[in-house]
Design brief:
This protein is of the alpha+beta class. The chain folds into 3 domains: 3-54, Structural Genomics Hypothetical 15.5 Kd Protein In mrcA-pckA Intergenic Region, Chain A, CATH 3.10.290; 63-126 and 217-236, Alpha-Beta Plaits (2-Layer Sandwich); 131-209, Alpha-Beta Plaits. Helices cover 21% and strands 29% of the residues. A hairpin with a 2-residue loop joins strand 5 (48-50) and strand 6 (53-54). The chain is elongated and about 65 Å long.
């Protein structure tokens, strides 16, 4: 008796069953050279490919901590031919997904994994994983504006959850540097929060994700997470 293809893909860490069904419906999965259809079963020895890359049900879970450089697209491909995160991992045979994303003008900590279920869990809104950023904004960020950021500001998609400002500094130009921690993952959230209190973001770098930090990594460098680090990351994903 074979195994349903979407269950096989989920067991392989490709994605959740529902997301795997969408991959099948999009024609991105083949079995023994034939484009798969929803409801298809696979047997031991069948050759399953996703976007032309082999899928193995017993593959080892990989989680990578990557210092994503500014100007790199957090996507598997780019129609404009710009550099993507996948370009840094061409020698790794497993298919990797980025957990969340950084916008084109931001840099810093990005997690990559071949575990689709882990990716879904870490990015689901109900799991409040803290993310810490270092931002530089134009001008002086007043005490009142800091309080607004901490208590929540109204954006076009609703009020932000409370944030934590760890420290602020002022450079010679009079611009403000700040370390800010949030647990939401809205698109361009830090930039929009600063804009809401009257400031333009000049630089944005993600320095922490849950219990993880960039450490000594330089821009473009990466390393594998240890099993202990993966466990601590999962513990940080609390509802």
């Amino acid at each position: 008796m074979g195994e349903r293809l979407q269950k096989y893909l989920a067991s392989a860490g490709v994605a959740s069953r529902r997301a795997s069904e969408k991959l099948i419906e999009a024609g991105r999965v083949t079995v023994n050279g034939t484009v798969a259809t929803l409801g298809m079963s696979v047997e031991e020895g069948d050759r399953v490919l996703l976007d032309g890359k082999p899928v193995a049900a017993d593959q080892k879970r990989i989680v990578i901590l990557f210092y994503n450089p500014r100007g790199v697209i957090c996507s598997s491909s780019d129609p404009e031919g710009r550099r993507t995160v996948q370009d840094f991992f061409t020698e790794i045979p497993e298919r990797l997904y980025n957990i969340g994303r950084l916008d084109l003008n931001s840099e810093g900590l990005l997690l990559m994994t071949n575990d689709g279920e882990l990716c879904n869990k870490m990015t689901h809104p109900k799991f409040k994983v803290e993310k810490t950023y270092y931002a530089v904004c134009d001008g002086k960020l007043t005490a009142g504006q800091q309080a607004q950021l901490v208590n929540g500001v109204m954006l076009e998609d609703g009020m932000t959850a409370p944030a934590r400002i760890n420290y602020t500094t002022t450079n010679q130009k009079g611009d403000t540097g700040l370390s800010i921690t949030i647990h939401e993952g809205r698109n361009r959230q830090i930039r929009r929060m600063l804009e809401a209190v009257g400031h333009r973001t000049l630089r944005l770098k993600r320095e922490g994700y849950g219990p993880l930090t960039l450490g000594d990594l330089k821009s473009g460098q990466w390393r594998y997470l240890t099993d202990r680090e993966i466990d601590s990351l999962l513990k940080a994903a609390k509802e």
